[in-house]
Design a protein that fits this description.
single chain; 1243 residues; alpha+beta; six-stranded mixed sheet; 27 helices; 23% helix
């Protein structure tokens, strides 16, 4: 009684708020349960105080309520500042299966009690690092804090909790910060002048990139002490090896320590703080700081190598000045280690190894710095930025684009007022980066483009943070952003797009030129001049044959891969006619085809209407999944059993089907063992399923009688047993007056039938009816011919099985994908619930045929099912299948070429049902045919190989090798403008009026850059190959690691973006080229005037200077007494103005970065030795490469003072630019060191 009273009170409390209480607009579907739960606690507490027993209550929420609760919470929008949690998709999927949302054949027995607490262990590697792939719905799910708390309350304390902040993006967008930066934190200690880093391992702090610096300060201090009131300050030091948490005060200067300001309004992102950056917390001791901040000056680390005497004895010479900046040391570099060494301290292992690969020497007393070839600067990985680095290298090695920026023309064409642009910021950041990459006096081998990334994420927040992104998406954004920032059209007019009105070649060419002229009225930039072409789109109406032709611009070509991604499967086909055998039909169809396409194929092969075919997946003796027209064939696994049933009516698997009042019922039939009777108070449980399920169609008149439905099931069942004759009652009299004959085409007349007795014995009965009193009637007579008459069927045999009615079988399955959640309903109950004369069936009903042991044994056999026909499938192989197999074998041996991809791109196809075209002539939407053709091709052709494919349940990467030429790609035959122009020229038309020129010149392209992707979808690693147009040497760019390579190495199965340049006798770029040439002439004239005014002092010429290749432009760094061009203006600065920004020091907008000067013990080369020294370079294809793109790499930038040498001796440029002077490239090889061996999987 207490329980009833308590629950009564709780029910009244859960009825909701009173009328005086405002009702919220968005209502939690189980909020009343939550309020009831709170009231329960109050009631239980009161009962405990009164000394009464507290009744044990069952779980407050059912599975259905839990599912509804989580769904409700997940539907809430993300709000900036909120905390959401990452949960492993693996665990969440198990929860969905246990709750009946999903079903998995391998986890069918999984119950809610088996799933355990929320567990993210699968997202971490063996070292505890977060794995690379955090793709929503594939690897992880996102849950708001409330939903996470509910799961923890229901299932226990989580394993590896992953809270994440919701951060604001541009344009009122929000996103979850998946990879917040993790920072190292140490404590400053006064350990003596020669002390090393000591103490226990240092701690980590994880903050959001949107957190203010004050939040970072608090987090750093809290990580090392529980006393938050202690006076403290924060030092930021250079990245490196930090073996402990106690940092010696004596090493602050050598580690480049800088005080971090707490009072700034900047965020962590604005301060350009990157993952794994180290910070040192200093606390006051006895009221004073441990170190005097004014005495901390960035100083070079102690040298760990032998220092030979300098080349020049004067302490004021160039090399001595560099020596005063820093000396080189080979530190903490071990064999088979990632070349990201600590820059501080020394290591005995430095003497055990030769020169570390890819690191420059320095011109100093301690070692010699090498002047790097222009265009060979590596870009440091700042945490999953390999996608950006590879794309930037490809664009930076586009000669015409580089010429445009290095000549300063872009400064004249900045369009900061363009509302579609980025106020010129992207163009300026990209220009500064190109100046650094192509600096002629740089000794840096690596640079981290922080300033560019900062501007990028400012205008493209999708690239903010440290997640992996698609390199192609960055190229598309960057080209579009540069175009708008440099658009010469300041005010875009309205331009109406012309329509195709019919005609011949002349009218077609005129329409194309009109479309292009209209586009150029709104878009005119260096990107249009170099990268943009035009394609023709042709649509044809299948009904009225109306032709629509439009011309549209493109910036890059996205080419599909004609990979033989076919779906091969065997379909179990069941005809409706029982006289026809059931068949095994091997099929082959495109992996992206739907089951609607598959039914069209089967319908054609079998001679039936596709709309009458029903496709279902069978698993565990029942229907598991309704394979309707929207399901993709590629979503099915290889071993899935797929049945296709022919029906006498529409299968109703199309979403566009509209139900009719006279539609028959289509029901699944499942065979099961009979279950012994259970007590009346016990719920009914089902027996064990066996055999194959099948489909029965019941007309509405039949549905009014249980007996008629039983007969309909018998008719479908006869296909599956060899004793099909014994499913019926037979009559020998050919024309009995009281017999009702049921013609069944597969049941032939027989002389005897079997009688199954109650004890299970089987006996043959000759020439008599099995049921009724026919045995007592007179003997059968013979006809006039003396032949015995053939027996006829008079009805179905009763009690072969018990026909049970089940509900809850939506889409032929119960409870989602075939789980056993159907409910039994008695025929009597159903009869009482419906109106008289109405059908007894409803949508979602199913039949279960219960066989007792004797009947099951007779009709289907024992354990071997020897009496069944479940294995009697007739193989049906269509000639189209055989042809497809032969074609697939031929294609496999042939391989895929870029020409095949272009042919696939220009192939005609029919629009899908969800992508209809409105025909202006028919005045309705049509499934038109569509075809793309290249009409005009650009000077720079960017090709995107579409390697990534998506479906609702599968995201995949195509790793197939595509063979593409490194030179001589001929597109002449594919370009419509060239074909039409040639025909018009031959007919005497003035093609120049149509904007068509040089029709005699072939359209041949040469490869100059490749952006490649290794690994899977959502992660992996990007690298680039590019041709240096100054030295005509190919290089391989792996973030900061640069090696010489060859064009043949770029042609591999990882190629993702291809960059081609058109061969031409004339300069490329059109209007842009004219502006560049004018800028070069102007700069050359000014330089000549300045050189005439003051003689130039020259550096002694190295022995190998002959044959030097000059840099394509005059340097932006001029002699110090002559002024120079700044990257921000076209005016010339005076020698007394601010120092030149491109003397290989940092531009004013870029933070100063330090060098990593590495030299082999005992190996130093003077400049003259460098001129003739030969270096070996590793073959990138023969050396392992980093599989991680997340590890942050240190920069190796040098200090700016060394550039004074080139201000005073400008003819060093020809020496540096020479490709034949023996000067080493930016990478030095060591065949005994594998620098990539400890690269972890991407985090």
């Amino acid at each position: 009684m207490q329980s009833d009273s308590s629950s009564s009170i709780k029910r009244s409390a859960s009825e909701g708020p009173s009328s005086a209480t405002p009702v919220p607009i968005m209502t939690d579907p189980i909020s009343s349960i939550d309020s009831a739960r709170e009231h329960e606690i109050e009631i239980d507490a009161y009962m405990a105080e009164q000394g009464e027993d507290i009744p044990t209550q069952p779980a407050s929420l059912t599975i259905e309520q839990k599912v509804a609760r989580i769904k409700y919470l997940r539907d809430k929008p993300m709000v900036a500042g909120d905390t959401w949690y990452i949960i492993s998709r693996q665990w969440f999927r198990h929860w969905e299966i246990a709750c009946g949302i999903l079903s998995d054949k391998s986890l069918e027995s999984l119950q809610e009690k088996d799933i355990g607490p929320p567990d993210n262990s699968s997202l971490f590697d063996s070292q505890g690092n977060l794995t690379s792939n955090l793709v929503e719905h594939i690897d992880v799910e996102f849950l708001p804090e409330e939903a996470w708390s509910e799961l923890v309350a229901w299932y226990g304390q989580p394993i590896n909790s992953l809270p994440r902040s919701v951060i604001a993006k541009a344009f009122l967008q929000t996103a979850l910060e998946l990879r917040p930066p993790r920072l190292k934190v140490l404590v400053l200690k006064d350990l003596g002048p020669d002390a090393d880093i000591a103490g226990p391992p240092h701690s980590y702090v994880t903050v959001s990139i949107k957190d203010p610096m004050k939040t970072l300060f608090k987090a750093l201090v809290s990580a090392v002490t529980a006393r938050s009131n202690l006076p403290s300050r924060i030092w930021k030091i250079e990245p490196g090896e930090l073996p402990g948490s106690h940092f010696p005060a004596s090493k602050l200067a050598s580690w480049g320590a800088e005080l971090v300001s707490e009072g700034t309004d900047k965020t962590v992102e604005d301060s350009m703080i990157e993952p794994e950056d180290p910070f040192v917390v200093e606390f006051q001791e006895n009221g004073a700081w441990i170190v005097d901040a004014s005495q901390i000056v960035r100083a070079p680390p102690p040298s760990a190598v032998h220092v030979p005497p300098p080349l020049f004895s004067n302490d004021n010479d160039f090399f001595s000045r560099l020596s005063n900046q820093r000396t080189s040391a080979f530190q903490n570099t071990q064999p088979f280690r990632t070349p990201s060494p600590s820059r501080r301290g020394s290591s005995s292992k430095a003497k055990e190894s030769s020169v570390a690969p890819f690191k420059s020497f320095g011109f100093s007393k301690g070692s010699s710095k090498i002047i790097q070839e222009p265009g060979t600067l590596g870009l440091g990985n700042m945490g999953n930025t390999c996608f950006m680095n590879s794309a930037l290298q490809c664009l930076a090695h586009t000669k015409e684009l580089t010429d445009y920026f290095l000549s300063g023309v872009y400064q004249e064409e900045l369009n900061p007022d363009n509302p579609l642009g980025m106020h010129g910021a992207i163009a300026e950041a990209f220009g500064l980066l190109l100046h650094r990459i192509w600096a002629r006096d740089s000794t840096s081998t690596s640079y981290s483009p922080r300033e560019f990334k900062s501007q990028l994420q400012r205008f493209a927040p999708q690239f903010s943070g440290y997640q992996q992104h698609d390199s192609q998406e960055l190229v598309a954004f960057l080209l579009d952003g540069l175009h708008e920032d440099l658009n010469r059209v300041l005010k875009k007019p309205y331009v109406e797009k012309p329509d195709w009105e019919g005609g011949g070649d002349f009218e077609l060419a005129k329409l194309a030129q009109t479309s292009w002229d209209g586009y150029m009225k709104r878009n005119d930039s260096v990107i249009v001049d170099l990268f943009q072409g035009q394609y023709k789109s042709t649509l044809v109406c299948p009904e009225c044959e109306k032709v629509s032709i439009t011309f549209d611009p493109f910036m890059y070509l996205t080419l599909p891969l004609p990979v033989n991604k076919k779906w091969w499967h065997v379909i179990h086909y069941v005809p409706w006619d029982p006289s026809l055998p059931h068949r095994r039909v091997p099929v082959v169809i495109g992996g992206n085809s739907s089951f609607k396409d598959l039914k069209s194929l089967l319908g054609r092969w079998m001679g039936v209407r596709p709309k009458r075919l029903l496709t279902l997946e069978v698993f565990n003796h029942r229907f598991y999944k309704n394979l309707d027209d929207s399901i993709l064939c590629g979503d099915m696994a290889e071993n899935d059993q797929i049945f296709c049933f022919e029906l006498p009516c529409n299968s109703r698997q199309s979403r566009s089907y509209k139900p009719k009042d006279n539609d028959p019922f289509i029901l699944p039939v499942i065979l099961t063992d009979v279950v012994p009777p259970r007590p009346s108070y016990s719920s009914y449980s089902r027996g064990t399923n066996f055999g194959y399920p099948f489909i029965v169609v019941v007309e509405r008149d039949q549905a009014k009688s249980a007996d008629a439905m039983y007969d309909a099931v018998i008719e479908r069942l006869q296909r599956w047993t060899v004793n099909d004759r014994d499913l019926y009652t037979w009559q020998a009299n050919p024309s009995p007056s009281d017999a009702v004959t049921i013609p069944i085409s597969t049941v032939s007349p027989i002389d005897s039938v079997a009688e199954i007795k109650e004890n299970g014995d089987v006996s043959e009965v000759d020439g008599m009816v099995v049921e009724g009193d026919i045995a007592d009637q007179k003997d059968f007579g013979e006809d006039d011919s003396g032949m015995e008459p053939d027996p006829y069927i008079v009805g179905t045999k009763q009690d072969v099985f018990n026909l049970r009615l089940y509900t809850g079988y939506k889409d032929y399955t119960a409870g989602g994908y075939g789980s056993s959640n159907g409910r039994s309903e008695q025929w009597e109950t159903r009869t009482e619930d419906i109106e008289p004369g109405a059908p007894l069936l409803k949508e979602g009903d199913a039949f279960l045929c219960e066989f007792d042991e004797n009947m099951k044994s007779y009709y289907f056999g024992t354990s071997q099912f020897e009496n069944s026909r479940w294995d009697d499938w007739v193989l049906f192989v269509h000639v189209e299948y055989l042809e497809a197999k032969e074609l697939a074998a031929a294609q496999k041996s042939k391989g895929i070429t870029l020409d095949d991809c272009l042919a696939e791109f220009t192939k005609q196809e029919q629009l899908g049902e969800d992508d209809l075209w409105y025909c202006p002539r028919c005045k309705k939407h049509q499934q038109a045919t569509k075809k793309f053709d290249l009409w005009k091709v650009p000077d720079i052709l960017a090709v995107h190989l579409k390697r990534f494919s998506n479906s609702r349940t599968l995201r995949d990467k195509i790793d197939t090798f595509v063979d593409f030429p490194s030179d001589g790609l001929d597109l002449t035959a594919l370009v419509g403008e060239r074909q039409v122009g040639t025909r018009l020229a031959q007919s005497g038309s003035n093609i120049k009026e149509l904007g068509i020129r040089d029709v005699e010149e072939p359209l041949i392209y040469d490869l100059y850059a490749v952006d490649e992707h290794m690994g899977g979808l959502g992660g992996g690693h990007y690298r680039a190959y590019a041709l240096n147009h100054v030295t005509e040497q190919w290089y391989h760019f792996d973030d900061s690691y640069v090696t010489r390579s060859d064009a043949s190495h770029a042609v591999n199965s990882n190629a993702y973006l291809l960059f081609y340049k058109r061969r031409s006798n004339a300069p490329l770029g059109g209007k842009t080229n004219g502006k560049i040439e004018e800028a070069v002439r102007k700069a050359a004239a000014e330089t000549e005037e300045e050189n005439a005014a003051e003689p130039e002092v020259q550096l002694p010429t190295p022995p190998s200077e002959s044959g030097a290749t000059p840099f394509p432009f005059p340097s932006t760094q001029q002699p110090s007494n002559a002024g120079y061009l700044t990257p921000q203006s076209n005016t010339r600065s005076t020698p007394t103005s601010s120092p030149p920004p491109l003397d290989d020091g940092d531009p004013t907008t870029l933070e100063t970065q330090s060098d990593d000067l590495i030299a082999e013990d005992g190996l130093t080369l003077c400049p003259l030795e460098l001129a003739s020294h030969q270096f070996d370079f590793p073959d990138p294809s023969a050396r392992a490469s980093p599989t991680s793109s997340v590890e942050v790499e240190p920069d190796y930038d040098d200090d700016p003072l060394h550039s004074s040498l080139f201000h005073a001796h400008e003819n060093i440029d020809s020496w540096v630019g020479s490709s034949q002077n023996g000067l080493p490239s930016p990478a030095v090889s060591d065949s005994d060191i594998n620098p990539f061996s400890d690269m972890n999987s991407q985090r």
